[in-house]
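Q: Hi! First time asking for a complex rather than a single chain. Here are the components, and I think there are two in total. Is that enough to go on?
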Amino acid sequence: EAGVTQFPSHSVIEKGQTVTLRCDPISGHDNLYWYRRVMGKEIKFLLHFVKESKQDESGMPNNRFLAERTGGTYSTLKVQPAELEDSGVYFCASSRDSGVDTGELFFGEGSRLTVL
Amino acid sequence: AQSVTQLGSHVSVSEGALVLLRCNYSSSVPPYLFWYVQYPNQGLQLLLKYTSAATLVKGINGFEAEFKKSETSFHLTKPSAHMSDAAEYFCAVTGYNQGGKLIFGQGTELSVKP
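A: Yes, that's all I need. Here is the structure of the assembled complex.
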């Protein structure tokens, strides 16, 4: 069974440009999460999809971030326009069940974003 | 509100020595607690979790953690470190019905010396 895959593994862009990160969850996992780790800080929750619907997007920093999950399969996270403080590692995770007492989150390797 | 504090951003032990990584939490609801590990160039992997059952939780690779409500702690231990344990370890907390919205600590980098 393939794990959670993320693309690209590393992206370097100029301030003001646009970047789109992609996450393919484990097949059959309805729940998809985005997290972010800014350098030296803790990993922080961004949002949670259940199938194609946003269940919780309370962690999204501002309206420069747009997450989508078309058809309830893969998800994209777009940053437009990117700012220096957006640099960090963006993690995607998926789970079959949304309750943590019944399932666990499976994380991808992360997409490292560097904004110059 | 919930929060997690991991004491020590870097911990170094000798191979064969005890591993102790400290985690204290704050939670206004009964907590569910987790330890994740990230090996170089890999994603986060669940080591173990506490979800209100037994307070002593055993995980993979010989790790275990004990939930102590009175001390609001969930420290991770392993009796004998192996070189392959070198990684970054994350403690996380969530509450019932909060799904996968985990609150993470800042992580502890574990080095194992030969």
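A: The mean pLDDT of chain B is 92. Let me know if you'd like any chain examined more closely.
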